[in-house]
Amino acid sequence: MRLDVLDMISLPGNPARPNDDAFCHSDALAAVFDGATGLGEQILPVDSDAAWIARRGAEGLIQHQAPGRRPRDVLAETARDAETLFKRLRLRAPKETYEIPFASMMLVAIVADGIEALWFGDCVALVKRPHDDVVVVGEAFAKRAREAGGVVRLASVRGVSAPAASRNLPEFMDFLRSERNGVNTKPDRWLFSPDGACAGHAQSRTIAAPPGTDILLASDGFLALASDYERYDAAGLLAAAKSKGLRALCDALREIERGDPDGARYPRFKTSDDATAILLSTV
After folding, report:
1. What angle, 0 to 180 degrees and rounded to 10, lies between the N-to-C axes of helices 71-89 and 49-64?
2. Given CA atoms 248, 251, 255, 260 in this order, what sign does their dihedral have?
3. Nearest-angstrom CA–CA distance, 14 and 30
4. Are 102 and 39 within 8 A, CB to CB?
5. What is the mean pLDDT of the chain?
6. Contact status, residue 104 vs residue 57, Cβ threshold 8 Å
């Protein structure tokens, strides 16, 4: 069995800034990475620390994959390489955890019993076997709902009516940094990072995936069509990806966001997030 790529897309939330998402694919595995937006000065000599860790993840998985090798072992070697390179390139050591580059991730790989999914954070996999319901892999829907609720509460406390307006970002920075400082400290708070230990904390699930199984991998910026803007449920989003194509869905996503630039209707911290998706099928 192998993975066949049907469609793929990755768009920056702001065309003037680097895309902090990344993705990779081969016959045996595919993944999306969503670099966590930087909350301070960069400590790497690159265009974006967040984009760097996402790209390192995607490139490392392809570099270290091998027939019969466990996906978690591939991920672990990728993280160790990132750790080594981060220590070599960084301009200084991080003073607080929020300065470390992190990324959410969803990885699927062909294994003997079907596909194994490994993930961090709020990327998602939607899996539909022939004649079966869609299976949602990951906690992205619940996490996005909690984040939207948190934005509303925080905006109320700070007296901000337009949370996604860039002028209001300083109002939230202390909160965002405090939250980021808790990453990689609890079992459910781990993200992909330049830390060889992170692979051991990735959540996992193995799913039967006979030929003709459709799989949509998405960063939370793309998933917002369903999780935030409620244009689709999980099954509808996967069906639309197949029938309309990922570009058309991204166009619809940006149209919604342009109609609510300050987040008054759909509470969020940014007008538009980077959006990445890969549509796959097992053959």
Report:
1. 140
2. positive
3. 25
4. no
5. 93
6. no
Average pLDDT over residues 18-44: 97
With the CA atoms of 166, 273, 176 and 23 taken in that order, what torsion angle do they form, in degrees rounded to the nearest 10? -150
CA dist 133 and 99 (Å) reads 41
CA dihedral 42, 170, 251, 148 (to 10 degrees): 110
Taking the model in full, what pTM does it have? 0.93
Tokens standing for 84? 């080594």
The tens digit of pLDDT for each residue in 77-119 reads 999 999 999 999 999 999 999 999 999 999 999 999 899 999 9
Give the model confidence (pLDDT) of 224-260 as tens digits: 999 999 999 999 999 999 999 999 999 999 999 999 9
Model confidence pLDDT, tens digit, residues 183-214: 999 888 999 999 999 999 999 999 999 999 99
Confidence at residue 164, expressed as pLDDT on a 0 to 100 scale? 60
Superfamily covering domain 3-140+183-253+273-282: PPM-type phosphatase domain (3.60.40.10)
Pair 194, 90: CB distance under 8 Å: no
d(CA 116, CA 61): 14
Q: Are 257 and 271 in contact (CB under 8 A)?
A: yes
Q: Which residue has the tokens 């051991």?
A: 200
Of 237, 217, 250, nearest to 105 (Cα)?
Answer: 217
Angle ∠(272,273,278) on CA atoms, nearest 5? 125
The whole-angstrom separation of Cα 263 and Cα 231 is 16
**Contact call for residues 47 and 55 (beta carbons, < 8 A):** no
CA gyration radius, the chain: 18
The string of DSSP letters for 48-73 reads -HHHHHHHHHHHHHHHH--TT--HHH
